[in-house]
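Title: Prediction job returns without error message
Component: structure pipeline
Severity: low
Priority: P3
Assignee: unassigned

Description:
Job completed but the reporter wants confirmation the result is attached to the right record. Sequence as submitted:
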Amino acid sequence: MTRSVVSLAEAARELEKFTGNQLTHRIASIESGFRGRGGDECRFANQKEGINSVLFRSALSFKQAAGQINVVVHAVGILLSLPYILEQNESIQTLSLGAGNTGKGFDLETNLRVAEFKFIDWKGADSVRENSLFKDFYRLAEDDTMRKHELYVIRDRFPLKFLNGGRALKSVMSRHTLWTEFQKRYEKRFSTVGEYYAHRKDRVTVRDLMKIVPHFVDGVFPVEACLE
């Protein structure tokens, strides 16, 4: 019986053996080589190509690990940012490091500020990411504490372009209970993201982490990420 792959290092070696220098060419070669073959011939070809349960479990291991990457990026990104964000007389009250909706308050709450973090490799318009960004902006903007409200992003070009833009608020919030809440609060006062942002932009500061945290410079986020 073939043993299970127990480490990502071992899984990486198996995947590297299969993919070679370029996965696309490898797959194309296999597709061509399997054309016209029957079951027994496929079994023999799989053995020859190193296609087995170990390879399959290796791929599954990486797929499962990849599902946790967003959490790791979010958590480590916040932790690296804290020394450069917190002021001398500031102390953390609550910290929420999990990516996405964890059911907690804000990513960061201190005696002086509440903040949300977005470690997104922006490449242009992306409705899913825009919706998530607006949700965080809205929650910060409507928080009624006297603390500072800050939304930290990687490069502020695309986030600010979206927040100043003309996307319909209903489309941005239609998948969230946020839309019902927003209608109760504002009725038909605003119809676009830009209209609401103009109303609340003095309440929330959008801050570019690339200008604050040295860990995020020097090629960590490629230049192409900020280009349309």
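Comment from assignee: result matches the submitted record. The mean pLDDT is 86.
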